[in-house]
Amino acid sequence: MTSLSMAKAINAGLRRSLAADDHVVLMGEDIGTLGGVFRVTDGLQTEFGPRRVMDSPLAESGILGTAVGMAYRGYRPVVEIQFDGFIYPAFDQIVNQVARMHYRTAGNVRMPMVIRVPFAGGIGSAEHHSDSPEAYFAHTAGLRVVSPSDPQDAFTLIQQAIASDDPVLFFEPKRRYHAKGEVDEDAPLADARPMGTARVVTQGTDVTLVTYGGLVQLARDAAVAASDEGVSVEVIDLRSLSPLDLDTVVASVKRTGRLVVTHEAALSGGLAAEISASITERCFYHLEHAPVRITGHDIPYPPARLESAHLPDLDRILDGIDRAMDRPNSLSGVED
Predict the structure, then answer these.
(1) Which of 14, 139, 254, 272 is within CB 3.0–4.6 Å of 261 for a Cys-Cys bond?
(2) Which of 219, 317, 209, 212 is nearest to 270 (CA)?
(3) What is the full DSSP assignment across 42-102?
């Protein structure tokens, strides 16, 4: 076992994939000589050369358009979108080309590519540098959407994504890049948790708390805090946002009878709405309370000095747990 930050774990996973398959290539703005803004690709161009790790022009639509052609010719491109808010110029290529190619060719053409996206907030970034666009892509048929929450999962999940014949949006929580954890670099990839499955990270009996990416650790902290008040919280890390592993969530909610979903993206049309609706359909007679959503607000991402008021925090998540438990609302001071 090696102690690695999430950024270093992704770097190690990329290195493993580059070494294993000559068809794997990396492209993105400043990912070569600089090693990327967050240094996730640091050292890879030196090791594998500029034909495998390529600095691209500052043109996201051009990066994705090039990746489509390379995937069409049998390569496995891994492209980096430098920041989440920069992905929109490439939206047309992703939803109209990458997502549809396999379907529109009647299964004759695959698009085995990974689109790496540093996403979400919590680091005090400037405008367009903290966004949560995952729901756009989870809504798009033909794309897989995943997000790791710790270094071990980041190490294995990036390799699984690269090995997949489907296009994968790989959302990397920026706030967790420097968080360290134990990584088993020698564990066989075949033994790793499958890419499309969720995992229970904290077992509990009273409330199911569902999240992903950068909020998983916060959810675990909330479970610890809630236990001090006698509430047992089961925390589920979705890992895969499309497809959703609803079976794991259903099994948990059938035990607890209550559901809280939290994410940084806005409330309206977010993944929390999809999960809440699906669980209500499948667990209606098991629910003791309506599902509770704790999300970002329905506003453009605020300036850095205000993001702490926008993002879910420990108090808001604990308040959601209280509401699901029909306890006095700790934020408003009234019964829900």
Answers:
(1) 272
(2) 212
(3) TTHHHHH-TTTEEE--S-HHHHHHHHHHHHHTT-EEEEE-SSGGG-GGGHHIIIIIITTHH
Contact of 223 with 202, CB cutoff 8 Å: yes
- pTM, two decimal places: 0.95
Query: Is beta strand 207-211 parallel, antiparallel or unpaired with respect to 199-202?
Result: unpaired
128 noted as active-site residue: no
Catalytic pick from 23, 102, 128, 129? 129
Question: CA 233, CA 295: separation in Å to the nearest integer?
Answer: 18
HSE-CB at 111 with a 13 A cutoff on CA atoms is 29
Long-range pairs of 33-41 with CB within 8 A, sequence gap ≥ 24 = 36/80, 36/82, 37/82, 37/83, 37/118, 38/7, 38/118, 38/174, 38/177, 39/7, 39/11, 40/7, 40/10, 40/11, 40/14, 40/80, 40/116, 40/172, 40/177, 41/11, 41/14, 41/80
Confidence at 330, pLDDT banded by 50, 70, 90? low
In degrees rounded to 5, what are phi and psi of residue 204? Answer: -160, 175
Asked if residue 201 lies in contact with residue 234, where contact means CB atoms within 8 angstroms, the answer is: no
Q: Is omega for the bond preceding 50 within 30 degrees of 0, making it cis?
A: no
Q: Tell me the β-bridge partners of 53.
A: 26
pLDDT of 335 over the 90 cut: no
Angle value at C-alpha 28, between 27 and 29, nearest 5 degrees: 150
Give the whole-angstrom CA distance, residue 156 versus residue 181: 13
